[in-house]
Structure formats: C-alpha cells, structure tokens
Amino acid sequence: MDGPLDINEIWKSLGTWGRYQRGQIFICLFTVIPVAFHLLSIVFIAYRPPFECKETTPRDVFPYQDHNDSSTYTFVYHQCSIDVFNNGSNSSLVTSTDCVSGYKYDVRHDASIVTEWNLFCDGGEASELAQTIVILGQGVGSAIFASLSDVYGRKPVHIFCHIALFVVALGTAWSPNPAVFIGLRFIMGATQSGTVLTLAVTALESLPVNSRYLWEIADSVFWTTGFILVAPVAYIFRYVSWRYMQIVFAVGSAYSLFEYWFLEESLRWLLANGKKERAEKIIRMAARMNGKDFDSVINAASTKANEMEAFLAKPASIPPEENSLTAEMDIQNNSNDDKIIHNDRKPEKYNALTIFKHKRILFNSLILWYTWTTNSLVYYALYLGSTSLSGDRYINFFLMALVEYPASAAHWYSIKRFGRRKSCIIFHTIAGVSLAVSTVCRTYQDDVTALGTVSLVFNFIGKFGITASFSTVLLYTPELYPTNLRSVGLGLATTCSRMGGMLAPFAGSVANVIIWLPGAVFSVMCLIAVYLTSLLPETLGHELPTTIAELKLWYKANTGNRRKTKKVTAS
Questions:
Q1: By three-state DSSP, how is residue 225 classified?
Q2: pLDDT of 373 over the 70 cut
C-alpha cells in the first residue's frame, strides 16, 4: 500500500453496500436508537401531573396558636397556595400560605422526579433545569469530543463516550436528590453528543461521497424510531418508580461494553494519519467479506489518486469546465484537508472572525442563527409540552414523534422540487400558522370542548412543519458559506440551536401562568423566519463558491427576489 490512495475509490471498488459496509452501518444505526432515548426521556421521568395543595389542618397552618378555642376555619386549596377563611359571623380571609402539608396528585409518589422530590411551585425550576443542562452538556461534548476524535480516532472516542453514557445513565437511576440528578444529566448530555457525533462521522466515512445522503435519511429514521419507543417504554412502567424506567433506557446501551470488537476504525482517519498497517487490515477484511480482490481494490484506488494528483498539478491554463469540476468536488467532500491549488495559489484560510468582517456574510449568518434558534426552541418545546396537551400523554408523545416520518419525506421532496429557500419558507409558514391556530383553540378549549381536539391536531401539524424546516436548514446552512468557512458557519449555527434548546423546557412553566404566551411566541418567531429566509439566496442548481469574492458575487445575483437566471460559477 505504497503511495497515495483515493478512499472514495476504495469504497466503490469494495462495493458500496457490501457485507462489510452493511455490518458497520447496521452497528451505527442500531446505536442511534438507545442514544436517542436519553434526550427526551425527561418528558416522562420529570412528568409534572395536575396537582393542588393537600388537605391541611389549623394546627399545620398556625403551629404556635392555641386550637382549643371554638374558632373554625375554611380552607380553599389552589395549586401552590391555600387561602384560610375565618368562619365567624363575618367570614374573611385570615391568611394565605403555601402547601404546608404537601401536594395532591393522581399518580404514585415516585412516578417521576417531580413527585418524588416535590418539585412543584417554588422548586419546579429544577425539573426544567434538568433538561436545559442536557442541552448545555451536548454543546460542551460536541466541542471536546469532536477535537479528540480527530486526534485519537473515531472508534476509541466513540467507545469511551458510549460506555460512559451507559454508566452515567444507569447511575442516574440511583440519584439521591435533584442536585446529583442534574449533575449526571450534564455528563449524560456531553457523552451522548460525543457518541452521536463520532458515530455519524464513522458512518459517513464508510460510504462513497455520492451515497452519504443515504446515511442522513437512515439516521433520521432510526433517530425518530428511538423517540417513538420512549412512549411505549414509559407506558409499560407507568405504575412503578421512574427509576425503573431510567434503568431500561440505560440498558439500551449495555452492548457498548462489547462494541469495541464489532465497530472498526474509520479508514479515512487511519490513512489520513499514516496508520497504513491498520488500514490495510481493514481493507483486507472488507475485501474478504465482500468477495473482492484486495490487490484490485488497491490498484484502482492508487490509479485514481495518481490521476487526481496529476489533474491538480496542471498549470493555471486549466479549462474552466475542469476547474469548476474541481471546485464542486471540493464542496461535495466538504473537507478542509484537501490542499487544492487554484491558479498556483492555496485556498484562502478563514475563521469565525471572517464572518464578522463581511457585512453580507454577517447579515445572512444572523438570519441563519435566528432560524436555528427558532427551530430548536419550537421543536423541543413541542416535544416537552406534549404531555400537557388534551388527551392521553403517551399517545400524544407517540404521535408527536411519529409525525417526523412524513416530515422527513416531505423535506426531501420539497428541496428537490422547490429548492432550499422556498422549502424553508413553506415549512416555517406551516409551523407558524398551525401553532397560531392551536394556541387560539387551546386558550378557549374550556368554553368549547371540541377545541381541545382541534388544538391537538394543529399542534401536530406545527410539529410536522418545524421538523421539516429543521431538516431543510441543516442542509441549507453549509451551502451558504465558501468552502473553507463552511464548517465554522455550521458550527456557529448549531451553537445557536443549543440556546433555543436550553430555553425550551421553560415554555411549560410560562404556559402555566399565561396559557397562550408560548404558542404565540413560537408562531410569531416562525413567521418572522419566513420573511428573513426570503432574503437569503437559493442554492439549488448552483455551483457553490469557494472564496469570499465569489460568494459576494453569488449573493448579489441570487439573494431574495433578485435572483437572476445567470449562474455564478467558480473560476
């Protein structure tokens, strides 16, 4: 295995969907399901049932008074307070106090962390914080484990994160108090992010460039399946402590203890880091499993690599078509590792500060950051609030997850039929209008019972819209940056999404005070996103620019309604 090798050609020669690749992809997809459990299991583990103050006595309210007199009191119970009236000739309010005897609800006392640790009223923020901390942990985990996987490899970092996730998730079931629970949830978020991130990279690097989109589809399906399974698991364990439910969710990752012997290291990472002996073992194993000849695979990869080197070494007189093809290949690979030379110069180097130095790029970035924040906030808030909707909370959550299947299908059809920008506009419009209708119906459902069902239906439609828009903007974002700024642009956008995800758990608490406010805010934010997205350029059918200069020309020609028929190509 001397000389350069074209990794894409290796996978093609081995057969894109050979036995080896199918086995590796299956391991990755199988891992997605239990990892997804921990992101939204909090919906049931921290379930807050309808409640009010438990019945009390004058002795509990007035512990320092003499209750042997003939005075009597009437108690009026609310969710977080008790009004005490004197039953004398002139009945009057004596005092208002908190729930001195605890709370009353219709589930067992340890059905969730809320009921076990009395996280109602003043202590209610702890349950919301538990989910916020998970999102924060995900952000920290992404930053740490992404870098470690580039240094030490995808496999060791993935195995470490997955085992740590299993251990921490299992240990969470024995949390003695809210503080320990929240701390473990932070670690859970970090290790979950590391597990998913390294898993996705490993899978993508095991497929040829033209087949990688299939992983995104399969990953979305299995991720949604993981969410769907949360509801039946929670339903089965509805009459026991939340700790048993947590144990079941944790056990889903128990096979991480044996995953080391089944999951292989990324071949691309091995070759990029000069570990040719390990790479050769994997290629030989894959060739044997796929029924291919090892020498033929290596010869094809070597020939392709030499052709590419010769092509890239050509002088500046390269025909425009070939130069354009080279730029497009660089964009498709979405990698900064390739030192492609254009006109005898290395590509320009950019960083996060570059975005703030160019007004047009910054303007578009602000739109994207707002859109990502909106999508994340609405997406997670709808999930977390599903148990408070009218109807059975298990069915509501199940349907809320199930709607992601048609949303994914609509996303892929729409981006091919209408393009990225119009798809974002369509799906945000669906989400904004549906959530507005749902909010109005929910506000008046006490007066008209049927409105509760109508509200639920439009809530699901809103979830459909926000899920499809989330998938679309994920694809759209990296296409709006030049090649060497693409990863930075996507990274900043996902950071903004964490902010929305961290705010989402508190939507339920706000709704308890002002029932219509969260839905109204979500609707308005989606409709604002509709207008802002219309100002972005369309990327469908356009070769993506590779430099800032080309990007500015492209923006000028294709932004908003000023899109021109002439395409700006890389030169």
A1: helix
A2: yes
3-state helix, strand and coil shares in percent for the chain, rounded to the nearest 5: 70, 5, 25
Element spanning 82, H or E:
strand 82-86
As a whole number of angstroms, the distance between CA 25 and CA 521 comes to: 40
What is the residue-wise DSSP string for 425-471? HHHHHHHHHHHHHHHHHHHTTTT-THHHHHHHHHHHHHHHHHHHHHH
Residue 494 CB-half CA count within 13 A = 20
**pLDDT surpasses 80 at 283:** yes
Tokens 């979305």 belong to which residue?
Answer: 220
Q: Is 291 exposed, middle or buried (0-12, 13-18, 19+ CB in 10 A)?
A: exposed
The side-by-side arrangement of strands in the sheet containing 92-97 is 73-77, 82-86, 92-97
Identify whether the C-beta of residue 430 lies closer than 8 Å to the C-beta of residue 461: yes
**Cα–Cα distance measured from residue 548 to residue 19, given in angstroms and rounded to the nearest whole number:** 43
Please list the residues that pair with 82 across neighbouring strands.
77, 97
Identify which of 168, 196, 181 has the alpha carbon closest to the alpha carbon of residue 28.
196
SS3 477: helix
Q: Is 105 helix (H, G, I), strand (E, B) or coil?
A: coil
What angle is formed at CA 91 by the lines to CA 85 and CA 94, rounded to 5 degrees?
A: 35
Residue type, 544: L
**What pTM was estimated for this model as a whole?**
0.79
C-beta separation of 34 from 252 below 8 A: yes
CA distances from 447 to 318, 436, 438, 517, 519 (A): 73, 18, 15, 19, 19
In sequence order, the 6+-apart residues with CB closer than 8 A to the CB of 107 are: 47, 49, 115
The model's pLDDT over 452-510, given as tens digits with 9 standing for 90+, comes to 889 999 999 999 999 999 888 888 887 787 766 766 777 788 888 888 888 888 888 88
Name the residue type at position 311: F
Most confident of the following: 119-128, 412-421, 537-546, 547-556: 412-421
Contact 542, 554 (CB under 8 A): yes
Is residue 363 within 8 A of residue 532, CB to CB? The reply is no
337 Cα distance to chain centroid: 27
d(CA 283, CA 266): 11
CA distances in angstroms from 530 to 356, 361, 524, 545, listed in the order given: 24, 19, 10, 25
Residue 309: pLDDT band by 50, 70, 90 thresholds?
low
Q: What are phi and psi of 217, to 5 degrees?
A: -65, -50
CB contact at 8 A, 249 and 226: no
Measure Cα distances from 149 to 48, 154, 157, 356 in Å.
Answer: 39, 5, 6, 29
Backbone angles phi, psi at 84, to 5 degrees: -110, 120
Distance CA 200, CA 527 (A): 32
Cα–Cα distance measured from residue 548 to residue 355, given in angstroms and rounded to the nearest whole number: 10
Q: How far apart are CA 568 and CA 561, in angstroms?
A: 16
User: Per-residue pLDDT tens for 225-244?
Assistant: 999 999 999 999 999 999 99
- Residue 345 pLDDT > 50: no
Q: Specify the DSSP class assigned to residue 100.
A: T
